[in-house]
Design a protein that fits this description.
- With 192 residues, the chain is an alpha+beta fold.
- The protein has two helices and eight strands.
- Strands 1-2-3-4-5-6-7-8 form an eight-stranded antiparallel beta barrel.
- The chain is elongated.
- 14% of the residues are buried.
């Protein structure tokens, strides 16, 4: 019945009806706000400071992950970015060590990298993502079908997602040769 009184009171322009609205509206509003505050506290939150999503205090990347290299979605300024690519996946096992005060995720099992790529695959936690950089030689496929090996530097990043997966980018700068320019390849890492 009070909500009907409030509706009626707000349609009237007299001072009496506005006084009536104040008497019926504010107590009802106070009760509703009180219930919301109690509910928020029971749920572990607060009405005045909403819970904020935050990363774990100690980041962890561990277990088996299937990494997808979406080479069919590559982009960039290098002629290699415009060449047709076939996406592929590889499964790696990761472990994280934060004992030095700096968190490092290492691939402890997975496919053997090509000859000019480091066998040790480690990612540093930057506070928001896992990151790794390395220098190597890009296999540059020329129009005649031959391959040259052009010097390159790559930065690989992975950002943890709320579902336990990681979304990333393999960003390469090729400093010289026929494939000089940039190539960016989207990555995903799904727990197995």
């Amino acid at each position: 019945m009070r909500s009907i009184q409030v509706t009626i009171a707000t349609r009237s322009c007299s001072r009496v009806s506005q006084r009536r609205r104040s008497k019926t509206f504010f107590p009802a509003a106070a009760i509703v706000l009180g219930l919301i505050a109690v509910t928020a506290m029971l749920m572990g939150g607060s009405l005045f400071s909403a819970p904020i999503a935050q990363a774990d205090a100690t980041p962890h990347w561990g277990g088996l992950y299937k990494i997808a290299f979406h080479t069919d979605q590559k982009s960039g300024t290098s002629m290699a970015a415009g060449q047709i690519g076939t996406p592929y996946t590889a499964t790696y096992e990761f472990t994280t060590d934060c004992s030095s005060g700096k968190c490092v995720a290492s691939a402890i099992d997975g496919p053997t990298p090509k000859d000019d790529v480091s066998r040790s695959i480690k990612f540093d936690w930057t506070g928001s993502q896992w990151s790794r950089s390395n220098s190597w030689n890009w296999d540059c496929l020329l129009p005649d079908g031959t391959i040259t090996f052009d010097p390159a530097n790559s930065v690989t990043t992975y950002v943890p997602q709320s579902d336990g997966s990681l979304a990333g980018t393999f960003q390469t700068s090729i400093s010289s040769g026929a494939c000089q320019g940039t190539v960016s390849i989207p990555l995903t890492a799904l727990p197995v």
